[in-house]
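Question thread 4412

I'm putting together a teaching handout and wanted feedback from people who do this every day. The idea is simple: show students a protein as raw sequence, then show them the structure tokens that encode its fold, then repeat with a second protein so they can compare. Below is the first pair exactly as I plan to print it.
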Amino acid sequence: MSQSVSEWGRKAADLYEADYARRYRQHDEELGHVEAYRAFCGWLDEVCGRFRNAVDVLDLGCGTGRYFAALRNVNTLVGLDASAAMLAEAANPIAAEKITAKTVQLVEGDALTAQFPAGSFDLVYSIGVLAEHTPLDARIVANVRGWLRPGGRFAFTTVHPDSASIPKTAGRAIGHAMLPFSPGPVRHWLHDRLTAGGQYADELLIVERLADGFTIESMTRLESEAHLHCLCVAVKAGEAGWAGRAG
């Protein structure tokens, strides 16, 4: 699959080179005792349970495939990642014996520029990628909307702008304090600055980004050892015939 690569895709590919990817995969073996990892897996399991029928799934930024085994009720699973080294590790993912997808395909590509036929998937999920390594912007939302079947779900995590992992600069502190008292245009500008245009994402930004073509089904927060996250599940609007696939 020949595809162009965005600036963010190049950064990810450069970061996750072979040695880093190998260490990342080795760390996967230790995740069984990590509360946040178990919570993410439980969340994915619950999202899969919202469908009545078996589904076709895209893992957007799959890395080493550390969440493949958390999925259930899956026909086909496609793992997309910008790093060839990470995909090489994903060929032997953690808990491989527990993966229930009938087929698994690994694709090297960029979430911003990847191409799949319209209506390829019932579920697109992404953990630890959007508003962390790749901005949650209009391009991502448009891509996912096109790839999903009507009634399909987009489940993803973001790093919340209030996360302790984000440096608390004086400018951020002042902007955060001013936000509730600012008039509309100024408030919007401040919020855009605090979220760095989608490099972080809170509930307000997520609702704004998904306003065209999605309905928010659930949104929660989760504190991991690294970040404060938003966990969102959104349903693509569509025809009743397709929506029957969803629970």
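The second pair follows. I'd like the answer to focus on this one:
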Amino acid sequence: MIFAKINLPKTPFISMDILTLLTCCSTLTTSTSLRQLAIIAQAIFSMTGRVTMRGISRWTSEDGSYRTVQRFFATRLPWAELKIKFFAAHLFNADHEYILAGDETVIGKAGRETFGVNRFFSSLKGKVIRGLGFMVLSVVDTVERKSYPLLVEQRIKEKSVKNEAKKGKKKKRARQKGRPCGSRNQDKREFKPSSEMKQLNEMVQILCQSLRQFVTVKYLTLDGHFGNNQAVLLARQNELELISKLRRDAVLFEKYEGEQAKRGAKRKYQ
């Protein structure tokens, strides 16, 4: 997309198309932040390679200095509300059907000073890499087959207490197959979220609360990593139906609807 640059007095070279599009967000933030966002957006659209604050400042005009770019990203903005407002004003079509889609994305990052740097699995490279992990929730237009990311949060891996306790100890013999002796049945209807599932649940609640003011969302799409009972409970808590792929270790049995034997326990599954 090419934007026409117009030189206005006492203003930077900002595309008027970008400023016009951002006017719908004027009630959510200050005019200074919107003007800085327009400058940075135009630079990101124009530049090539990896996007960094230093690189953005080199592709902007005099008013988009490196210090200005740093100041903008240090400002706390309601990004979720801004994106939803922009989506409702320019991209939403009342005649189309929309669903929620969530997935994790990983960006490679070296060094140790960046907050949240850890080892994450990258599906593009097919292996675990060192970098940053982000959970992304998007709204998918089922008619135009387009995805609009609306909510992005960084994933922070917590240190496992079990792994730390195992350090310095000899490896134990592998547990035998089958159910451990003395284990009891668990309530499959109880929602016990992990840290990852808890973060996803909070993101879904925030997005559904804002989207359902102008669009009906019925389905939540997640990849095979979330093809489990806890993800189903998460979707139902938010009045959604889960669309996912079952894990490779999932074992399913159909209910037995035939005649029962006169003696012995009743058959539950085929």
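Top answer:
Good format. For the second protein you could add a caption like this: The chain is about 30% helix and 20% strand. The chain has two domains: 1-77, 94-158+189-258.
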